[in-house]
Specification:
Blueprint: E1 6-9, E2 15-18, E3 33-35, E4 42-47, E5 53-58, E6 62-68, E7 73-77, E8 89-94, E9 110-116, E10 121-127, E11 134-141, E12 150-153, E13 168-172, E14 177-184, E15 190-198, E16 204-209, E17 214-220, E18 226-233, E19 242-248, E20 259-264, E21 270-275, E22 279-285, E23 293-300, E24 313-315, E25 321-323
Antiparallel strand pairs: 1-2, 2-3, 4-5, 5-6, 6-7, 8-9, 9-10, 10-11, 12-13, 13-14, 14-15, 16-17, 17-18, 18-19, 20-21, 21-22, 22-23, 24-25
């Protein structure tokens, strides 16, 4: 979300990086770097708060990839996260606020956190900027009551990109509690619940909460089909004030949601991208109508071949929907 570079991976575990994305030219995008890492499958790719560094977590290790300006090449830094325990999710976020929209400093310090749902615990490390050391910050048990079965990084979409009160979202399907977590670092590193929202009990498959307090929640219906509900929360209150802001249903009952991404334009227009099995739908929220969402564009994998599937999907910092098919971007 911090630049125009893109990283993705193949089903074989090969890491693919694109440095230059020529949207206007409409040309084929050339892969800048291919890396096999340790040969195991890649679980997560997460950018640091600069477009010159990101982490790639495989089933065996966590690697930090750094771009060398002098050689114009990417290189993996062998990185062992000290005291790393098994985890369900891993993500990154800035250690300090980013000064200008989309223009973080290359030396920006950032945190790496892993979440264990069963233990309700978070482990955190700090990376001291470009090529800096990675040190263990500590392990935290989330305050009670904090039971949850879904967890997600809060997606940064607006200036300022980073708020210490809006870092992680957890959801408990049995109670309908959606909790937003932040950090305090004054005397020691501490996680705390900054907001609590009570929603209807849902069989939730995925949550995507963004930094302007809007959420897209994927849940399963009794017939097995999935539905996406959109929620708008009051950012001015710690208590639960929300509006159900729309429902999006699949084209067929068997269609499954693979990914959801948010984007906010400089004119505060909200876009929502939903990746289904064979297509991507881009929705726009209509002005002055909280519950009105219009599909403004669709991307169909069949346009690229009868047997093609979409691998990964995201928005760049400038708002271009970007997706991969085979090894092409």
């Amino acid at each position: 979300p911090y630049g125009q570079r893109v990283a993705t991976h193949s089903v074989e575990g090969e890491l693919l990086v694109w440095d230059q994305i020529d949207i206007a030219g409409g040309k084929k995008q050339s892969i800048s770097r291919r890396m096999a890492l340790d040969g195991s499958s890649i679980r997560t790719i997460a950018w640091a708060p600069a477009d010159s560094e990101f982490i790639a977590a495989t089933s065996k290790h966590v690697y930090r990839l750094v771009y060398n300006e002098e050689t114009a090449e990417w290189a993996p830094c062998d990185m062992v996260l000290s005291q790393l325990r098994p985890y369900d999710r891993i993500f990154t976020y800035p250690a300090d606020p980013i000064d200008r929209f989309g223009s973080p400093q290359k030396t920006q310090s950032y945190y790496i956190s892993t979440v264990d749902k069963e233990a309700m615990s978070v482990q955190t490390w700090q990376a001291a900027g470009h090529h800096g050391k990675v040190v263990f910050v500590g392990s935290s048990i989330l305050s009670s009551p904090a039971r949850f079965d879904r967890v997600s990084r809060v997606m940064p979409v607006a200036h300022p990109f980073f708020s210490r009160d809006n870092i992680m979202a957890t959801f408990d399907s049995s109670s309908g509690k959606l909790l937003i977590w932040g950090i305090r670092t004054d005397t020691r590193f501490v996680w705390f619940c900054s907001k609590e929202h009570r929603l209807p009990c849902m069989n939730v498959d995925m949550i995507r909460y963004n930094s302007i307090d809007k959420a897209a929640i994927v849940s399963s219906e009794p017939d097995g089909s999935q539905v996406v509900t959109i929620w708008v929360f009051s950012s001015a209150s710690r208590a639960s004030h929300y509006l159900p802001a729309g429902t999006i249903r699949p084209r067929s009952k068997s269609d499954r949601v693979r990914e959801i991404r948010w984007h906010l334009t400089e004119f505060a227009q909200t876009y929502l991208g939903i990746q289904w099995d064979k297509h991507i739908d881009i929705y726009c929220q209509e002005r002055n109508l909280d519950d009105a969402w219009t599909c403004v564009f669709s991307i169909d994998a069949r346009d690229y071949g009868a047997d093609k599937t979409i691998g990964s999907f995201s928005f760049t910092a400038a708002g271009e929907p970007t997706f991969s098919i085979d090894r092409k971007l």
